[in-house]
C-alpha cells in the first residue's frame, strides 16, 4: 500500500467512532475594531517596533524619499514604483549575491494593519519579488494612509492567497540571546515607512 | 554535530540532574519570567481574546474530525499550483524523501528554517548519514547546532545558554562550519547576532536547496505559512531554487480566512508580541521555485485515535504552556528527553509514540503538578491536565503486572490515613523524626522550608522525583490539643 493510502486509512480508522459533527466557530472577533484613529494607532505601533516613520504629503514625498535613503548609492527600484529615486537600479532579476551588494530597496505595500503595526507586501506592481525587500540592508516602504486597515481580520479578508505575501512588523529581530532584542539578524536592519496622507 | 535525545534517562532522573545546575535555573527563571510578563501584557490588549481561543479550538477540532477530506483537499490545491506532494508514514520515510530530492539536484548542503517537525524526525542526522550537511539558520538553532547541544525550548531553543557561553561557542566552533567569528568578538548580544549574520549570509547566498516546516497549511488554497522573527526564514524560503517543506498532517486550517484567528493567537502567545517581525505565505510553486511538500504522519494518526488526547493535535507550538509551567521552569527542557518539552511535550510524546513502549516516554505524564496554568495559557484551549490524567491511567494500565511507584506509595499512605488512631501514631512518629531530621539539616527548598533528602522505601518511590517537605516538629493535631482550645 502506498504511504498516501495507508495514512488516509489510518485517519479514517482513527475517526471511525468519532463524533464528526461540526463545532460552531464564533466569529464575533471579526467585527471588533479598535477605538480611535487607525492611522495614529498604526503610526504608534510601527514606531514601537523600532521602525522609522516619516509622514508626508504627495508633494513632499520626493524630498522624504531622498532623506530616508540617506547616503545609499545603489537603490533597487522594482517595476511599477511610481516615483523617481536617486541612485535607482532596476530589477533585472539579480541573484541574491548581486542584491547583497546594493545599499537599499524602495517598495510600495499592499496594505498595513493598525493594531499590530504591520505592513503587508503581496509582491504586486511596485513591490518587487520577495528577495528584493529582504537582502539589501535598508528597506524604504511608501504607504498611503488609506491603505491602513484596523486589524488582522480585515487584512486577511482583503488579501488573496493566490499571491505570495510577506508580512513585516518592524525590522528583522532576534531575542535569542538572553531575550535581548537585537535588530537586523538577517533581513534589513532598517525599515523606514513613508506614510503619505491621502 | 549529531546530538539527539535518544537514550535520555526518564524524567525524574534527568530532572534531578537539571535541578542541581544553578546556572540553568537562573537562565530559565529569567527567560520564562520575562516572556510571561510580555505575553500577559499583549494578551491583555485584545478584548476578544477568549472568543479567539474558542474560535481557534473549534476550527482545529473541525479539521481533525474530517482530516481525511482536508488532506485530500490540501493535496489537490498544492498540486494544482505546481507543488509536488509526498506522504510519509514515519520519520525514516520523511527523511528519505528529503534526501532523495537533494540527491536528484546533486546538492550536498541545505539551509534550514527552524522547524519542530524536522527536528522530530531527526532530519539533520539522517541527511548527514548520506553526506548532506543541513545548516540551521535560526540564531538559537545555530547556537545549539554549533555547540553540539540539544534544544531546550520550542521557541527559544538556546534559552539555557547565556551570552558568555554563546560567545565561547561561536569563537571555538564557527570556523569549522564556515566563516569564523571575528577575533575580537565580545559577549554583547548585538555583536553576537552580527557574527551570526555574517556567518550565515555566506550560506544563504550559495544554497540551492532549503528545508522548512510550516506553521499552517491552508487546505482550500494550498497556502503554507511560516511565522518567524529573524529573516532567516525568508532567506531560506525565497533564495534557493528548491524548497522542501515538511508539514505535520495536523497543521491544516480549512480556509484562507481562518488564518485571521491564528495570526492573532500565535504571536501574542509565543513571543509576547503583537505580531512577529516576518510572516511568509506562499501557495505551491512561486517565482519559478520548485516546491515540494512532505505530509508527515509519524504518530499523529495514533494521537488522533485517542479520544481524549486528540485535542493535543490542535497545538500550534506557541510554547506559552512551557513558560507558565512551574515544573518546566525548574527543570528546563532537556529533562523531557524530546524536541517537545514542557506540558505539551508531556502529553504529545506519549500520544505520538504510545504508552508502555519505553520508560522515558511513560515517565512524562507524571512530569506535572496538574496546576492547570498550561490550560489557561493555551491559545487553542488544550486541556493538558485532563490529557495528563488520562495518560497516567494508560501508563498504569500498560504496567499492570508491576505496580507503579506512586501507586505503592499511595497505598501505604491510604492505610495510615484511613484510621484516626493510626494517623495519630504516625504523626507522632513523624514529628519525632522531623525534629531529628531538622537538626541534621537537610536541603532547603525555595521559600526556606526544609526538605528531606531521599526517603527509604517505599517512600523513595515518591521522593525520588520530588522534594518532600520536612515534617513539622509537632503535628497540627497535637498543637491543637495543646494550644487550640485556649
Ligand atoms: S499546547 Fe497550547 S500553549 Fe502549549 S505550545 Fe501548544 S498551543 Fe501553545
From TrEMBL, chain A:
PANTHER family: LACTATE UTILIZATION PROTEIN C. Residues 98-196 form the LUD domain. It comes from the Bacteria. This is L-lactate dehydrogenase complex protein LldG. InterPro entries: FTHF_cligase-like_sf, LUD_dom, NagB/RpiA_transferase-like. Coiled coil: none annotated.
From TrEMBL, chain B:
It comes from the Bacteria. It holds the Pfam family Fer4_8. Keywords: 4Fe-4S, Electron transport, Iron, Iron-sulfur, Metal-binding, Repeat, Transport. Residues 73-287 form the LUD domain. Residues 312-382 form the 4Fe-4S ferredoxin-type domain. This is L-lactate dehydrogenase complex protein LldF. It comes from Amycolatopsis thermophila.
Amino acid at each position: 500500500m502506498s504511504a498516501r493510502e495507508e495514512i488516509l486509512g489510518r485517519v479514517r480508522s482513527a475517526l471511525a467512532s468519532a463524533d464528526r459533527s461540526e463545532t460552531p466557530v464564533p466569529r464575533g472577533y471579526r467585527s471588533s475594531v479598535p477605538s480611535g484613529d487607525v492611522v495614529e494607532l498604526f503610526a504608534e505601533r510601527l514606531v514601537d517596533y523600532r521602525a522609522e516613520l516619516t509622514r508626508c504629503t504627495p508633494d513632499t514625498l520626493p524630498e522624504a524619499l531622498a532623506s530616508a535613503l540617506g547616503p545609499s548609492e545603489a537603490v533597487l527600484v522594482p517595476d511599477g514604483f511610481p516615483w523617481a529615486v536617486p541612485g535607482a537600479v532596476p530589477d533585472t532579476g539579480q541573484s541574491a549575491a548581486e542584491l547583497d551588494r546594493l545599499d537599499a530597496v524602495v517598495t510600495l505595500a499592499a496594505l498595513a494593519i493598525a493594531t499590530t503595526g504591520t505592513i503587508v507586501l503581496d509582491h504586486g506592481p511596485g513591490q518587487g519579488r520577495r528577495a528584493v525587500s529582504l537582502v539589501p540592508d535598508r528597506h524604504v516602504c511608501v504607504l498611503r494612509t488609506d491603505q491602513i486597515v484596523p486589524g488582522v481580520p480585515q487584512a486577511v479578508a482583503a488579501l488573496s492567497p493566490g499571491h505570495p505575501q510577506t508580512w513585516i512588523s518592524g525590522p528583522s529581530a532576534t531575542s535569542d540571546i538572553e531575550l535581548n532584542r537585537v535588530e537586523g539578524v538577517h533581513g534589513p536592519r532598517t525599515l523606514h515607512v513613508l506614510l503619505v496622507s491621502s | 554535530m549529531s546530538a539527539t535525545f535518544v537514550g535520555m534517562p526518564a524524567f525524574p532522573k534527568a530532572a534531578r540532574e537539571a535541578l542541581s545546575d544553578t546556572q540553568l535555573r537562573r537562565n530559565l527563571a529569567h527567560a520564562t519570567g520575562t516572556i510571561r510578563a510580555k505575553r500577559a501584557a499583549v494578551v491583555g490588549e485584545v478584548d476578544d481574546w477568549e472568543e479567539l481561543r474558542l474560535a481557534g479550538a473549534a476550527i482545529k477540532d473541525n479539521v481533525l474530525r474530517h482530516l481525511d477530506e482536508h488532506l485530500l483537499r490540501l493535496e489537490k490545491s498544492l498540486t494544482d499550483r505546481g507543488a509536488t506532494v509526498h506522504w510519509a508514514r514515519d520519520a525514516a520515510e520523511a527523511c528519505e524523501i528529503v534526501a532523495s530530492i537533494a540527491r536528484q539536484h546533486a546538492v550536498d548542503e541545505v539551509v534550514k528554517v527552524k522547524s519542530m517537525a524536522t527536528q522530530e524526525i531527526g532530519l539533520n542526522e539522517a541527511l548527514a548519514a548520506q553526506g548532506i550537511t543541513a545548516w540551521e539558520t535560526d540564531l538559537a538553532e545555530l547556537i545549539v547546532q554549533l555547540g553540539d547541544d540539544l534544544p531546550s525550548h520550542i521557541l527559544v531553543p538556546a534559552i539555557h545558554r547565556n551570552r558568555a557561553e554563546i560567545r565561547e561557542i561561536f569563537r571555538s566552533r564557527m570556523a569549522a562550519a564556515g566563516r569564523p567569528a571575528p577575533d575580537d568578538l565580545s559577549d554583547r548580544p548585538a555583536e553576537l547576532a552580527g557574527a551570526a549574520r555574517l556567518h550565515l549570509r555566506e550560506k544563504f547566498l550559495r544554497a540551492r536547496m532549503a528545508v522548512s516546516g510550516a506553521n499552517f497549511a491552508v487546505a482550500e488554497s494550498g497556502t503554507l505559512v511560516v511565522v518567524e522573527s529573524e529573516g532567516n526564514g525568508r532567506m531560506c524560503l525565497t533564495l534557493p531554487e528548491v524548497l522542501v517543506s515538511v508539514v505535520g498532517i495536523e497543521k491544516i486550517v480549512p480556509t484562507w480566512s481562518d488564518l485571521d484567528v491564528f495570526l492573532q493567537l500565535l504571536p501574542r502567545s509565543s513571543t509576547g508580541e503583537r505580531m512577529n517581525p516576518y510572516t511568509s505565505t506562499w501557495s505551491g510553486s512561486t517565482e519559478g521555485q520548485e516546491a515540494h511538500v512532505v505530509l508527515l504522519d509519524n504518530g499523529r494518526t495514533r494521537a488522533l485515535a485517542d479520544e481524549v488526547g486528540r485535542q493535543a493535535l490542535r497545538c500550534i507550538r506557541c510554547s506559552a504552556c512551557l513558560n507558565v509551567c512551574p515544573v518546566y521552569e525548574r527543570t528546563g527542557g532537556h529533562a523531557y528527553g524530546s524536541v517537545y518539552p514542557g506540558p505539551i511535550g508531556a502529553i504529545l510524546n506519549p500520544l505520538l509514540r504510545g504508552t508502555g513502549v519505553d520508560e522515558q516516554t511513560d515517565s512524562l505524564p507524571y512530569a506535572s503538578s496538574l496546576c492547570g496554568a498550561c490550560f489557561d495559557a493555551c491559545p487553542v484551549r488544550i486541556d493538558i491536565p485532563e490529557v495528563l490524567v488520562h495518560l497516567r491511567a494508560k501508563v498504569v494500565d500498560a504496567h499492570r503486572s508491576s505496580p507503579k511507584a506512586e501507586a505503592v506509595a499511595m497505598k501505604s499512605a491510604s492505610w495510615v490515613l484511613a484510621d484516626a488512631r493510626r494517623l495519630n501514631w504516625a504523626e507522632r512518629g513523624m514529628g519525632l523524626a522531623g525534629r531529628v531530621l531538622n537538626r541534621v539539616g537537610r536541603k532547603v527548598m525555595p521559600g526556606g522550608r526544609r526538605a528531606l533528602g531521599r526517603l527509604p522505601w517505599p517512600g523513595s518511590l515518591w521522593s525520588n522525583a520530588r522534594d518532600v517537605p520536612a515534617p513539622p516538629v509537632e503535628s497540627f493535631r497535637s498543637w491543637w490539643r495543646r494550644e487550640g482550645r485556649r
